[in-house]
Amino acid sequence: MNSQELVRNFMSDVLDGALKSLAGGGDVFENYLEEAQVDRNRLPTNARIEDVIYENVFVMNMGTHARNLLKNKGEMLKLIRKEALPSWLIWQELDRHIRQLPNAEAGNLGDKDIASFGPYLDVLNTDKRIAEMLKQAGRKDQLLLSVYQRVPERRGLKGLIETLRNN
User: Fold this and answer.
1) Helix 86-99 and helix 106-115: axis angle, to 10°?
2) Span 108-147, pLDDT tens digits
3) Does pTM top 0.90 for this prediction?
4) Where are the domains of the chain?
């Protein structure tokens, strides 16, 4: 599939979803929540659009996991909230920071996913931008600080090897 066709199909899906929300009558936002399978009681108090979108992404991911595990998605969503998964919280916070970068690089996106495993690793080798994001976010969040503390002070392969030898 070529990129133009992919974009055209994506935009067609977005338009179809918007038209469904509008055609349903009533509150457009409530229609969107229902279509996106986002339950209001899973959202934080005074939720922003960003919170709704992250919950929607989480719900879609849970659907994928449910299919792979041969489980019921609804039952999984009753048991698991994104706030209970450290990996998800790290990914979400880094995603917010990356969106604010004027010139995010492809490596930043890969490192965002890799950093999600930070709580489960002894050493996390990441580029300087992601390390700086973890450092800044760590000032407000103990989980992100604990991940930042796993990043070697010296960057690159030399820093990683040095840290592994010392541990």
Assistant:
1) 160
2) 777 888 888 899 988 888 888 888 889 999 999 999 999 9
3) no
4) 1-36, 45-84, 87-167
